[in-house]
Amino acid sequence: MKPAAFDYVRADSADEVVSLLQQHGADARILAGGQSLMAMLNFRLAQPKLLIDISRCADLNYSRVENGALEIGAAATQASVEWRPKLAAEVPLMAKVFPSISHFQVRNRGTVCGSIAHADPSAELPLCLVALQGEVILRSGTGRRKLAAEDFFQGMLTTALAPGEMVESVRFPLGQPGARYGFEEISMRHGDFALVALAVVVSNDSIALTVGGVSDRPRRKSWGMLSGADLDAALNDFAWELEAESDTHASAEYRRHLVRQLGRKLITGAMHEAL
User: Fold this and answer.
1) Minimal CB count within 10 Å: which of 96, 118, 148, 197?
2) Candidate CATH numbers 3.30.360.10, 3.40.50.720, 3.30.390.50, 3.30.70.100; the one for domain 180-274
3) DSSP run (H or E) holding 157
């Protein structure tokens, strides 16, 4: 199929983007890397009257360490963040996640904020943002507001983004001293969306496990330090809380099994590393 007719504007600044959104509201969509949106346009799952291309907005193309977080602007590509020389020291979990995100050709064009705004429950960057308890900065003609990642994601491809708003940036908290991070996913082929993806953060006194691909959004659960049968019981409870459903790719039973088994592997591995 081909997209329905639309108007196109290539914006030069964030101020211009906000002005256009204020004028057109829900009739406008932002185009950054286009890796998700173009497919939706071709299948007419999205039919905006105006596309606002932000790829040339220099004031939205940045990644910088500020106030204890790596802040990434709406026009910054995934590859530009992946290639940061100090990324593994700055945000260790992101460095572990990037190689599993599709293929390098997609990361060269796709943006970090675009993946967050698209909110696919199987995508790795939303999982990472929730796991680290990051933030999303939203901007409109009336100002800015900041939302915790868990409040921003509201369901399958559904977010708290309002008409006339844009995701201006996202903030991934920096790695903390003594914390250990782990990530693993199972997919049909490398580069496919995950059947189940898990990220773990282990500190001196707590364990946090975030799961993607099972529920309608990434879900995070934290506990005190657990091991043995107590850890197995906690993982089993969490696997059932996610309310997995069967589809053509995997059964609900298999997804629960992966949460339990991969979750235990990641947590025990991170705990051992922290010793």
Assistant:
1) 148
2) 3.30.390.50
3) none
